[in-house]
Amino acid sequence: MSVNRRRGEVEAILDGKPRTLCLTLGALAELEDAFAADDLGALVERFASGRLSARDIMRIIGAGLRGAGTQVTDDDVAAMQVEGGASAYAAIVSELLTATFGGREPQQPNP
Question: What span, in angstroms and rounded, lies between the C-alpha atoms of 20 and 4?
Fold first, then answer.
């Protein structure tokens, strides 16, 4: 599976299968609603706090999967397994948020 980091895509192994996650504009709107954030700035501020609950992580992963085109509910995500446990789920979210809001791979300078 090939992901495009420039589009904000990341890959994660969930239930033993490689899956693409992407926080599209629709996925971000979904998260604004889920977290009662007035705008993207408020959403970023919440994520930057570094304090995410298990439910928050589930919602972000679910939105990322749906943003990449996988038909999945948050309940489906709650039942998914990932090698490495809770810290692995948090790492997926961290990578997804970095790909979405900043820290993308730098562009190569033109020769």
Answer: 9
